[in-house]
Design goal:
Helix content: 10-25%
CATH class: Mainly Beta
Structural class: mainly beta
Strand content: over 45%
Mean pLDDT: 92
Shape: elongated
Distance between the termini: 26 Å
Order of helices and strands: EEEEEEHEEE
Largest sheet: 7 strands, antiparallel
Radius of gyration: 18 Å
Strand order of the largest sheet: 2-1-7-8-9-6-3
Number of helices: 1
């Protein structure tokens, strides 16, 4: 199964978290108090977490960083969970990424990548 972001194919499947929030408007009621109204749904946020390993771990990190620095939407799919496919990838923005070089484990680089679905 494949997880791909832009030109990068993840060697090991990351953990994938989907987050979706409702857009709510708070309104004051005549006579006091407030009420909430549903005004829509925000963009889907996708969080990928995992570890880059092996001799290419730093090159892989740099490839992912270059995708963020490009400032462009990226194609993304994770066919392991039925989100897009090679023939029909989703369009996402890379919102943020972080890398952690793990003490005592020089062969591993932990990452968190946050994507936002193009709406």
């Amino acid at each position: 199964m494949t997880v791909k972001l832009g030109s990068y194919v993840f060697a090991a499947e990351p953990e994938i978290l989907f987050e979706l929030e409702a857009d709510l408007a708070e309104r004051r009621r005549y006579g006091g108090g407030t009420t909430l109204s549903h005004v829509g749904v925000g963009a889907l946020r996708i969080t990928l977490t995992g570890r880059l390993t092996g001799p290419n771990r730093y090159a892989d990190r740099d490839t992912l960083i270059s995708l963020l620095k490009s400032g462009a939407k990226q194609e993304f799919y994770a066919d392991t969970i039925g989100y897009g496919s090679a023939d029909s990838p989703k369009q996402v923005w890379i919102e943020r990424m972080s890398f952690s070089h793990i003490a005592g484990k020089p062969q591993q680089v932990a990452y968190t990548i946050i994507l936002r679905e193009e709406t």
